[in-house]
C-alpha cells in the first residue's frame, strides 16, 4: 500500500519546528508562517480569527498538497505598530480563550444533563 503512516501527518520529526516565520521582502508589514504537521482545520480557524482583527489587512492560508503536512499562512497588517507576528499571537490567544470557554460550557451542559437524567426530568412517561 502506498499510504503514508498516519502519524507522519501530526508528529514532528526530530528537530522540526512547529512554526516558522518568513517576512515578505516585497510587501510591507507582511509575512508567511509555516505551520508544520497541520491541515485545513487549523488553517481556517486561524484565518477567520485573523480577519476579525482590525489591524489585519489580509489573511489567507494554503495547504499545498494533501500528502504535504504543512500550512502556509500569509498575513499582511496595517501600518506599524501592527505586525504579522503580533497579529498571529493575538489570534492564537483569542482562539485559546474561546476554546476554554467552549470547554467550560460543554462541561456545564453535561453536568446539567446528568442532573436532569437523575431527577427524572425529561423522561417520557405516559
The number of distinct β-strands equals 4
Main-sheet strand order equals 1-2-4-3
- The amount of beta strand, in percent, is 15-25%
State the shape: flat
Q: Any low-confidence stretches, pLDDT <50, length ≥5? A: none
Could you say how many structural domains there are in total? 1
CATH superfamily: RNA polymerase, RBP11-like subunit
The CATH architecture would be: 2-Layer Sandwich
Please give a quick description of this structure:
Keywords: DNA-directed RNA polymerase, Nucleus, Transcription. The chain is an alpha+beta fold and 126 residues long.
Please give a structural write-up:
By secondary structure, the chain is an alpha+beta fold. It has one domain (16-118): 2-Layer Sandwich (Gyrase A, domain 2), CATH 3.30.1360.10. It is 38% helix and 21% strand. The protein has 2 helices and 4 strands. It has helices at 40-51, 84-119; strands at 19-23, 30-36, 56-62, 70-77. Strands 1-2-4-3 form a 4-stranded antiparallel β-sheet, covered by helices on one side. The N and C termini lie far apart (57 Å). The mean pLDDT is 90.
Amino acid at each position: 500500500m502506498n499510504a503514508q503512516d498516519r502519524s507522519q501527518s501530526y508528529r514532528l520529526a526530530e528537530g522540526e519546528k512547529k512554526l516558522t516565520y518568513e517576512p515578505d521582502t516585497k510587501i510591507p508589514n507582511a509575512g508567511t508562517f509555516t505551520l508544520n504537521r497541520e491541515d485545513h482545520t487549523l488553517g481556517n480557524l486561524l484565518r477567520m480569527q485573523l480577519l476579525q482583527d482590525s489591524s489585519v489587512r489580509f489573511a489567507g492560508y494554503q495547504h499545498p498538497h494533501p500528502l504535504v503536512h504543512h500550512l502556509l499562512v500569509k498575513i499582511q497588517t496595517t501600518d506599524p505598530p501592527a505586525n504579522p507576528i503580533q497579529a498571529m499571537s493575538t489570534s492564537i490567544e483569542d482562539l485559546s480563550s474561546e476554546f476554554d470557554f467552549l470547554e467550560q460550557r460543554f462541561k456545564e451542559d453535561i453536568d446539567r444533563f446528568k442532573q436532569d437524567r437523575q431527577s427524572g426530568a425529561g423522561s417520557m412517561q405516559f
